Amino acid sequence: MNKLAQAFSFRHACKQFNEDRKITSTDLNAILEAGRCSPSSFGLEPWHFVVIDNPDLKTQIRAVCYDQKQITTCSQLVIILYRKASQFTLQSDYLRRAVARELPNRDDETAIDIVSQSLINFLEQGLADGLTIDHWSEMQGYIAAANMMTAAAYNGIDSCAIGGFQHNSLVKILEKSIPQFSGDAWGVTLCLTFGYRVKQPADHIRWPLDDLCTFL
Ligand SMILES: Cc1cc2nc3c(=O)[nH]c(=O)nc-3n(C[C@H](O)[C@H](O)[C@H](O)COP(=O)(O)O)c2cc1C
């Protein structure tokens, strides 16, 4: 088996981590890099990764994650945030910087206005067919999350995605903990717990490829 296939086989939803084993900063950095390098719609990277090591904060967060013990037993908790529709405006510093970095002249404010406006128009109208900007933005984070979990597994690190959380309560905790963070501007896509397993997992349960794929 090649190393990537081994990583997919190694990764499972780890339910309890070894509380005595911490992820090194080098390994944590490799996980975060996998998120950073992930593809996103229009290359807008509408995400932010909050890395939490603080035990008190983990305890508070566990309470709004249906008391799931991965939150407090993990080495690091990474919360994947997404930029809400309020950040996709002509005045948005984030959007203007994202647009500028693709331009030959990054100081060309007129070009930044034009490209930003066309992106906004596309997002507001092009996505109107049942998909909101918030939902579109939130989904991007899942790609980063998947890459982070694979990168972790590649380095022998376990993970568990935690989608079971009370969104608004979690946002309130983050508002209290992060200066200038606002739930008007940010939402939570997913929580990711990383660490080392305490016991071997059961085998993966998956449909066979024949049931999953249609070849035309
Ligand atoms: C978006 C998402 C949310 C999830 N939320 C939780 C969760 O809140 N708690 C949990 O224990 N596992 C959670 N999981 C893990 C899944 O239950 C798990 O991946 C699935 O049952 C398959 O098991 P495996 O990953 O071990 O193969 C989540 C997975 C994903 C992708």
Largest sheet: 4 strands, antiparallel
Question: What would the principal axes of the Cα set say about the shape?
Answer: globular
Mean pLDDT: 97
What share of residues is helical? Answer: 40-55%
Strand order of the largest sheet: 1-2-4-3
Distance between the termini: 29 Å
- Each distinct ligand: flavin mononucleotide
Residue share in β-strands: 5-15%
Q: Write the H/E string, N to C.
A: HHEHHEHHHEHEH
Structural class: alpha+beta
What radius of gyration results from the CA coordinates?
Answer: 19 Å
* Regions with little confidence, pLDDT below 50 for 5+ residues: none
How is this structure best summarized?
With 216 residues, this protein is an alpha+beta fold. The protein has helices spanning 3-10, 25-36, 55-63, 70-73, 93-100, 109-126, 133-154, 167-177, 209-212, and strands at residues 47-52, 76-83, 158-162, 186-195.
